[in-house]
Design a protein that fits this description.
Blueprint: H1 8-11, H2 18-69, E1 73-78, E2 82-88, E3 94-101, E4 106-108, E5 127-129, E6 134-136, E7 142-144, E8 152-158, E9 161-171, E10 176-182, E11 187-188
Antiparallel strand pairs: 1-2, 1-6, 2-3, 4-8, 5-8, 6-7, 8-9, 9-10, 10-11
Length: about 190
């Protein structure tokens, strides 16, 4: 009878040792943890961006309605996350034409460590304009209750998440807005 001799590579193909498995599992756990932390931070930044775009869309809608309907459109920012557009009727009265709630836990909020935007309109709160009420006129201007141009800031963030800090500024003379995101050290457009 002939003996069969095992080749060296056949003998070593039995599987992983316990220490090799533990090392592999440890490496995968570390990589999973890093990915989860990175995804959480990115997710909050994306929610902040979405909130910023929602505010800009509501401002554009109010301005477009004012121009197309030839009526003043008051924009109210109601804490924590509501934007209401109200049409001023002629000769008197008001009608709510749009009510919108920001999504993704985004609220009107400014972290105290965050400075004013580069436009320098000042900070009196998360929503900061020159007058008590602000509205778009039929010519597209954004004005306060006295009819003076109302420029200001709207700060947005998710509570406890500084990476979500965003701001929208509005220019009273044109009714146009500009968006900023906070990178931890400065505002970026």
């Amino acid at each position: 009878m002939k003996q069969v001799q095992l080749l060296p590579h056949v003998a070593s193909s039995r599987g992983f040792t316990l220490s090799e498995l533990l090392i592999s599992i440890s490496i995968m756990s570390i990589l999973s943890g890093i990915t989860a932390v990175g995804f959480s931070s990115a997710s909050q930044a994306m929610k902040g961006n979405a909130g910023m775009q929602q505010v800009r869309a509501q401002l554009r809608l109010a301005r477009d309605l004012a121009i197309s309907q030839r009526r003043s459109m008051e924009v109210q920012f109601i804490a924590p996350n509501e934007i209401r557009t109200i049409r001023w009727e002629i000769p008197s009265g008001m009608t709510t034409v749009n009510q919108y709630f920001l999504e993704g836990n985004v609220e009107f909020h400014r972290f105290s460590s965050v400075p004013d935007t580069p436009d320098g309109f000042g900070i009196t709160g998360p929503v900061s304009f020159t007058g008590q009420t602000s509205r778009f006129l039929s010519n597209g201007h954004f004005v306060d209750e006295d009819g003076a141009f109302s420029s200001g800031n709207i700060f947005l963030a998710i509570q406890g998440q500084p990476s979500s800090q965003r701001a929208v500024t509005i220019f009273g003379g044109t009714g146009r807005s500009r968006a900023y995101r906070w990178d931890g050290t400065q505002w970026l457009e």
